[in-house]
Amino acid sequence: MNTQYRRVLLKLSGESLMGKQGYGIDTDRLADYARQITEIVNLGVEVAIVIGGGNIFRGLSGAAKGFNRVKGDQMGMLATVINSLALSSALEAIGQPARVLTAINMFPIGEQYSNRRAIETIERREVAIIAGGTGNPFFTTDTGSALRGIEVEADVMLKGTRVDGVYTADPEKDPEARKFDKITYDEVLARGLKVMDITATALCKENNLPIVVFDMDTPGNLLKVIKGEGIGTLVY
């Protein structure tokens, strides 16, 4: 089957892993993600993944409650490792090999990340799940995703969220919000749209890494994006 993309960096939201629970990991949601990812690997797509940690701990909200910002961000990095281990387990349970690579040395929990190791992993049709953000505080997992997408030479960054694209305003709060089919990086920055943080958007722009924002929580959507069916919003 023809696919739009050969190699992708899939950014998953930690909050989405909560499902309807409000905290932690919903195993049904996790299993659904694993099925969708395996489906595109079976088409020959090479997949690297970065997951947020907001279902367990967010460094920024921790800092707002009095945590030291550096330690709060390090706690957030550990939350992404927990999510990455959960996803790798769900993938392996349905026969899809996966490898967790961590930005900071956490052997034997995961292998230390290098772009060469990640590329070798995805070329073997294993899923490379890259945890720990950039390994540094003050950077979001969006920025980590942009960086890893560039490093593994992905064709596109797929940002799987709870909403089906980029809107003029938050569609969950503003019924008048209008969805974009396509939008440039510059327009995202000029309008102050909350696609990703400014650092991540600028990094993608400088390195010509397009972003597709789409609803990952609807089963089958990941496959539709890979086949170029035009769902979500393209940021270019």
Provide structural commentary:
- The model has no long low-confidence stretch (mean pLDDT 94).
- 37% of the residues lie in helices and 19% in strands.
- The chain has a nine-stranded mixed sheet with strand order 4-3-5-2-1-6-10-11-9, sandwiched between helices. The chain has a two-stranded antiparallel sheet with strand order 7-8.
- With 236 residues, it is an alpha/beta fold.
Short description:
By secondary structure, the protein is α/β, with parallel strands linked by helices. The protein has 8 helices and 11 strands. The model has no long low-confidence stretch (mean pLDDT 94).
**Number of beta strands:** 11
How many strands, what sense, and barrel or not for the largest sheet? 9 strands, mixed
Whole-number average pLDDT?
94
Structural class determined from secondary elements? alpha/beta
Helix-residue proportion: 25-40%
Strand content: 15-25%
Apparent shape: globular
Give me some keywords for this one.
236 residues; alpha/beta; nine-stranded mixed beta sheet; two-stranded antiparallel sheet; 8 helices; 19% strand
